[in-house]
């Protein structure tokens, strides 16, 4: 009888221990879930369509500034012969091809308390390093903008429409490598702002690389807005593209073209030699 009571006592003891363990486990999970709220838990900021730094093809909209990809503008990867042209949310290109977007600002009236920026952060291939020296310039990615797709130069102010409508400036992020941004002062907007931009790595000078692009709206005048730093990061989604030089399709086409060209050249040489040979063996009339 004593043994039965002892056994029942141990069972009750083990049941209590099990309940306490379950309770502590649930409390621990609750604390862990609470501590992971925010970006680490994949939380999406209010008004943001994607997790911070995640690659998307949809519009990047921050306040009044919006950046659209060529896909959202009705394109379907016509800029590239790469197949597939997409890898998840990342656009894929061969060197020499472009990645197109459109920057738009919805408020058409000047706002002196607004500054708009679009960042272009390049990651070059490991073989070429990160030092943006003049000698390495042709290997680096770069930005083109406007109807004429002019290559943007650091520290230069351009205009959406000549001679002076909607100015924007192309700058380099201080103390950074291959990190640039377009800045638009809200006080200078006098018409609907819409700017086509393209990013490119040249061929054959560059082995390729990648770019991350995102937008930012600052509630300060352009003259007093803090300059971005090298660790500036997106608070929402980004547009991403990569470039490489593995042009198997083009190489095959080039080999076929070169082979055809060589065959045609050889055929012309044989025909020319046949004419010469025929002329040498043709009987000549003796002049009396």
CA gyration radius, whole angstroms: 32 Å
What sequence of helices (H) and strands (E) makes up the elements?
A: HEEEEEEEEEEEEEEH
Overall average pLDDT: 76
Low-confidence runs of at least 5 consecutive residues? 20-44, 128-132, 251-256
Cα-to-Cα separation, first versus last residue: 152 Å
Please report the number of helical segments. 2
Derived structural class: alpha+beta
The helix content is: 10-25%
The shape, in one word, is: globular
Q: In what range is the share of β-strand residues? A: 25-35%
Strand order of the largest sheet: 3-4-14-13-6-11-10-9
Number of strands: 14
Largest sheet: 8 strands, mixed
Question: Short summary of the structure?
Answer:
The chain is α+β, with helices and mostly antiparallel strands and 288 residues long. It is built from 2 helices and 14 strands; from the N terminus they run αββββββββββββββα.
Describe this structure in words.
Residues 20-44, 128-132 and 251-256 have low confidence and may be disordered. The protein has an eight-stranded mixed β-sheet, with no helix packed on it. It is an alpha+beta fold. 24% of the residues lie in helices and 29% in strands. The protein has helices at residues 2-35, 248-281; strands spanning 60-62, 65-69, 86-87, 90-94, 98-105, 115-124, 142-145, 150-151, 156-161, 165-172, 179-185, 193-200, 209-218, 239-244.
